[in-house]
Amino acid sequence: MRAADLVxxxxxxxxxxIFWDSAIYERELERIFARSWLFVAHESQVETAxxxxxxxxxxxxxxxxxxxxxxxxxxxxxxHRGNRVCFADSGQGxxxxxxxxxxxxxxxxxLKKMPKMGLYKNTPGFRFEDWGLKRARVATYxxxxxxxxxxxxxxxxxxLGDFRxxxxxxxxxxxxxxxxxxxxxxxxxxxxxxxxxxxxFVGDIYHALWTHLGGAExxxxxxxxxKVENExxxxxxxxxxxxxxxxxxLGNAATMGDRDLLRYMRSRQEAITARLGDxxxxxxxxxxxxxxxxxxxxxxxYFTFRTxxxxxxxxxxxxxxxxxxxxxxxxxKDRFRRGSMRTFSPSGILExxxxxxxxxxxxxxxxxxxxxxxxxxxxAPPGEVKEKExxxxxxxxxxxxxxxxxxxxxxxxxxxxxxxxxMPLASPSVAVEAAK
Amino acid sequence: MxxxxxxxxxxxxxxxxxxDRAQAAAAAQELLALDGRGAPVDMATHHxxxxxxxxxxxxxxxxxxxxxxxxxxxxxxxxxxxxENRFRRDKRAPFDPSAMALFDERKxxxxxxxxxxxxxxxWTEDPPTRHVYLVSNVEAFETGIDGQYxxxxxxxxxxNRSEHDDATLAGRRRDILRSTTDGFLLARxxxxxxxxxxxxxNLSVFF
Lengths: 436, 207
Prior knowledge:
- The complex is a heterodimer.
- Chain A is built from 14 helices and 22 strands.
- By secondary structure, chain A is of the alpha+beta class.
- By secondary structure, chain B is an alpha+beta fold.
- Helix content of chain B is 23%, strand content 33%.
- A six-stranded mixed β-sheet of chain B has the order 2-1-6-5-4-3.
- The termini of chain B are far apart.
- At the A-B interface, β7, β14, α7, β20 and α11 of A face β2 and α4 of B.
């Protein structure tokens, strides 16, 4: 089965089996997750030598550790009998010791020692360097750490391409870098296919006008606050990554209902504009959502960053953190901590309504007849009008399925293509300048 | 966009009771200091506290959120921290009031959540969820402050809605109750779920 036969990205229809079929899911693990650059941590989570977190790349458990010479990412599975090596979510140490036989690995994943080491030293052909924890390639962009197990994948710079110019609107709006707020990931399970949340964040502001009416009412008023129009708004897509946004500067943040927080954000607009220019400054906290292909998403304004971790075709874990500029006043960081929790967490008055939708969009496919109906991703109200002067593939109007079609275009390409040589990435058109 | 994006046609939650950051931090420390070592309360007080909990659970089961809201003190601090898997050798305090949480609320925040539920536009609660909230293992202690009690309890909260949709959450609560002429008020609550990954999709519920 070719993925191209399951998705029509010209008009926009999708075969529902891609949200259900376990053979398609297994192929995603191989072709998408084992080949993409995947978000694994923020540098602030592994600040000092010896600090580590554990996370997932696809369904592969990995350790992200700060060694003396930088951040390393390696499989969290002992090559001896396969047991999981590290059972903590985060911590500090100099080595990782497997519970089964005591094989010990360093902060770079290399095999260091084991009980009765002489037995191996006398084993013909056994070499310590052959039996470390499998290492991934690691690269960072402005605090975000990505990794891939594919030696042939292009660089992270090429993978992100011009999307970096937009990412600076949340990663480099203020000097001094960013951090994840303390406490580790907020994690929850949703019985949905991972692509439903990923495609929601890549370009579906449309749902907010209906799904979130109840959640938005206490802070924005009945039908009063969710202002989404195709004037002053855009969708940008680069290599399947996508961001839909408007020019409201703090439209998303307003739904947290914290006037002091909004006052603070307004007080920063001039400085952020001087740093990023007017266009990107207005993206900082605006009505917006974004996904970095395949499963790393964020919301400007709430600054929740999350991975949609695949756990089988019908199950996804959300791992979420809140990102803030390091130099932000502590009181404002605390307002973002509580504001993002009250809107976008398992108890969040907005997120709670999303999960319900994604679960039932997935579960309905149990029906054979249902599963054989195609879904509609056709909305294109401005037509295919492209904004030429902005980097990436930009459409005017955030109410559109353009980014979602581009997301699935990338999905089809990766699913159907053997070699990176046959998977062109958009060549970056702008020099990504460090903000002033 | 208007100059004030927080629209006027709704209750002004900024006037509702809340705590500033220092007050909240102090309240968190009060909860973390509760250790079940005070003198047990007398039988009559214990009985009254259990009655308070049974009524509270029933009000939540029956979605009588405004009646439940009236059981909350104006200086409420209501906290469900995240649980992280850490090695025993890890020296960090297990609960950090400045870390991300699942609930970290003041009374005004509870009002916002009730505002959502009362909006009649919360599709995930329509048809409604059916709740059963069991509260058990109640131990109540004197605190050294007259009319203020430390109460430790355990709970099982079962939810069901739609067809196969259900969730069972068990946990522990540590409360500070305050006795008033109108009965008890809940002033502090620490809710500890054992799950490090919430094994259900949401917490559309109060504890």
